[in-house]
Amino acid sequence: MRNSDPNPDLPQGQDAYRRLLLEIRAGALKPGDRLLEVELAGRLGISRTPVREAIRQLEADGLVVHVPRVGAAVRGLDPGEVTELYEMRGVLEGTAARLAARAASDVERDELAAINAEMAAALGDPARMYELNRQFHAALLDAARNRYLARSVAGLQKTLLLLGPTTLEGEERARGAIEEHAEVLAALDARDELAAEQAMRRHVAAAHAVRLRQFRSRPADDVPD
């Protein structure tokens, strides 16, 4: 199924926005794909008005742009922008790890370790790995106890959705991520703020390297202008 199931508890505009976000993350909607109100309304089973609201919200998020003579389309990222995103992610999440090394409770550290153990058990299941990885990074951010940092990370994560499916689909990268998480956890347990920040920066750099390899391997027709 191309889109997620509808959520009847949400207003149609918000639900359409949620479903389109999921399609962008899954790679079902790719950079350059047009967002046609009539086609989306028919596929999502709703009227054009909530679809229009969803497109406007995606545009406000910077995930959709208006292309001359084309209309609304999913925004593309070039390799330079990808590098800038991961550089900023390293700064923000490295800071989160440093703050968590100072502030995380025993319960929070245990939760992080449990999530990483679940990731190890979920090897071979990319969807589950993605969700557990999301939980790990969210729990670490919560443990940092800085609401302004959390807001900055949330904005960055929306732009990262444009990169499509998780890098954890490959087993080698998935195993590497689990080991890198373990290094962060060891630094948290030691209350070593510098080591925690450095471990997280290495983790982000490893993910960045995989993304760049993905870009180099894409067909020329798939590379955004």
TrEMBL record:
DNA-binding recorded as keyword: yes
Stored SMART domains: FCD, HTH_GNTR
Annotated ranges, domain HTH gntR-type: 10-77
Gene3D superfamilies: GntR ligand-binding domain-like, Winged helix-like DNA-binding domain superfamily/Winged helix DNA-binding domain
Pfam families on file: FCD, GntR
InterPro entries, sorted: AsnC-type_HTH_dom, GntR_C, TF_FadR/GntR_C, Tscrpt_reg_HTH_GntR, WH-like_DNA-bd_sf, WH_DNA-bd_sf
Protein name: GntR family transcriptional regulator
SUPFAM superfamilies: GntR ligand-binding domain-like, Winged helix' DNA-binding domain
Gene Ontology MF terms: DNA-binding transcription factor activity; sequence-specific DNA binding
Keyword annotations: DNA-binding, Transcription, Transcription regulation
Species for this entry: Pararhodobacter aggregans
